[in-house]
Amino acid sequence: MDDFSVKISLKEEDFWPEMSEKIRIRWHNEKEEIRNFAKKQNIKRLTHFTIATNLQSIFRFGLNSRKALQNMNIEHQRLDQSDKIYFEDFIYASLTSPNTKMMFSKYQLGVPLACIILKVKLLWKVPFFSLPMNSARNESIRLVKNDYSNLLASKGLHNLFLNNELREKWQIHKSEPTDIQ
């Protein structure tokens, strides 16, 4: 079994240069397919939620990854207090609605939250990859290491909607992803 407790960023992995290039190429080649899929699935927005005190820096400096915030010496509060930094170079967003399970757990602790609504067109304006689960889970790291090709561009986006067992069990509307948070 792999040990994923080691503090390492995805960008430090040997396969990152290849993955980064494939993300860019596939995204570029599949923009129209991504746009059509978003329309078909009725994806109207992306959401990013954060601790409310971070809003001032977001309005001033824009939405940035944790790594970028550290590099710019911008103070911020993290929602996820774990020491996992594997995806620290990336900005997290959810399709359609935020990770409500995590939001509710923070709300119950009295953490003041803010939800930022992002335009869906970011999907065809900015390269991305899709994780079918919360990125803080060890399984997400394992998934990227084992076969990141299923996470890229339109295929990665499409894969977020494939878990029919969860869709039926939780009565999730077809326009909502079935990722496991």
Explain what the structure shows.
The protein has helices at residues 16-29, 31-40, 55-61, 66-71, 100-108, 122-125, 138-147, 153-159, 164-169; strands spanning 45-51, 94-95, 113-119. With 181 residues, it is mainly alpha-helical. It has a three-stranded antiparallel β-sheet with strand order 2-1-3. The longest helix is centred in the N-terminal third of the chain and has 14 residues, at 16-29. The protein is globular, with a radius of gyration of 16 Å.
Short note summarizing the structure:
The chain is mainly α and 181 residues long. It has helices spanning 16-29, 31-40, 55-61, 66-71, 100-108, 122-125, 138-147, 153-159, 164-169; strands spanning 45-51, 94-95, 113-119.
How much is the radius of gyration in Å? 16 Å
One letter per element, helices H and strands E, the order comes to: HHEHHEHEHHHH
Which strands sit side by side, in order, in the main sheet? Answer: 2-1-3
Q: How much of the residues is beta strand, in percent?
A: 5-15%
Looking at how many chains there are and whether they match, the oligomeric state comes to single chain
Can you tell me the overall shape?
globular
Low-confidence stretches: 1-7
Which structural class do you get from the secondary structure elements?
Answer: mainly alpha
Biggest β-sheet, characterized?
A: 3 strands, antiparallel
Count the DSSP helices.
9
What is the terminal-to-terminal distance?
A: 22 Å
- Total strand count, please? 3
Mean pLDDT: 85
Helix content: 40-55%
